[in-house]
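Key result, reporting period 2: structure in, sequence out.
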């Protein structure tokens, strides 16, 4: 067996990034999982906002226009408005010579504001179980080829993995970009796009339910290496759906993520991934 690549992306010039097999997703062998490229865009936006003193990513929204093919990609970031306490940024992701995704983001200035004791909803809720008490689990497509299932480590905190509502911890096994320690927001972005997969209620062999977008809202800076998704998927009879994930670190709630889904029945005879394999 060949050893997996050392990172999700490598770069020589800091502008063009070569996606490795660790970014491969479950839907097509030539396409990236949307988590790693979303994290790459997140990385670029956080870096663009840092000189203005805007250090907290309050929201990241990605409109996924086309599949992100394996290979070279690059990110362009534009500041739309930068104020005293908040900045709005847009970004475009290019791969294979095409624009494949557009993002908007809210970056915020952090301040030390102590909260009064006893306010409703606080302290913030915790994940169902901490990672050290959660059982190791592996994505069902991870053994088929090197890909996203090798990039992340998973532990199941609640429910059944890839079979209905569940809570699962994610931790990067490899750096996002070679030679760099992943930032806290990058760790969240890598994981947050997996809500519709880990909470799947439809059989991968018979249906596809790919997300067209991803929105992440964060109330504070994530802490540590582990990110938990407490996810569930819901479907209408119109070929559309929604996946929702509460996001946690080991300290407690950090935010939420949503994905709008396109649900389609696969053609007869088309082999796919069964969620129960």
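The corresponding designed sequence is given below.
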């Amino acid at each position: 067996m060949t050893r997996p690549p050392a990172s999700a992306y490598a770069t020589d010039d800091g502008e063009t990034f070569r996606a490795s097999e660790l970014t491969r997703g479950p839907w097509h062998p030539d396409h990236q999982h949307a988590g790693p490229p979303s994290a790459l865009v997140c990385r670029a936006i956080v870096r663009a906002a840092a000189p203005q003193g805007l250090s907290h990513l309050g929201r990241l929204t990605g409109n996924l226009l086309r599949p992100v093919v394996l290979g070279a990609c690059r990110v362009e970031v534009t500041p739309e408005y930068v104020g005293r306490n908040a900045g709005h940024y847009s970004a475009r992701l290019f791969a294979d010579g095409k624009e494949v995704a557009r993002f908007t983001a809210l970056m915020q200035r952090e301040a030390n504001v102590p909260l009064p004791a006893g306010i409703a909803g606080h302290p913030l809720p915790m994940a169902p179980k901490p990672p050290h008490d959660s059982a190791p689990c592996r994505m069902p497509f991870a053994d088929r080829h090197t890909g996203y299932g090798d990039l992340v480590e998973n532990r199941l905190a609640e429910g059944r993995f890839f079979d209905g509502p569940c809570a699962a911890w994610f931790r990067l096994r490899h750096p996002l970009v070679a030679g760099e320690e992943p930032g806290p927001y990058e760790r969240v972005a890598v994981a947050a796009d997996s809500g519709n997969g880990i909470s799947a209620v439809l059989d991968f062999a018979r249906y596809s339910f790919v997300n067209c977008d991803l929105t992440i809202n964060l109330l504070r800076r994530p802490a540590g290496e582990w990110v938990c998704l407490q996810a569930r998927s819901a479907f209408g009879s119109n070929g559309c759906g929604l996946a929702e994930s509460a996001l946690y670190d080991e300290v407690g709630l950090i935010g939420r993520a949503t994905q709008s889904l396109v649900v389609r029945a696969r053609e007869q005879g088309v082999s796919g991934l069964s969620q129960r394999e």
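The longest helix spans residues 35-49. Residues 269-277 have pLDDT under 50 and may be disordered. This case is discussed further under Risks and Mitigation.
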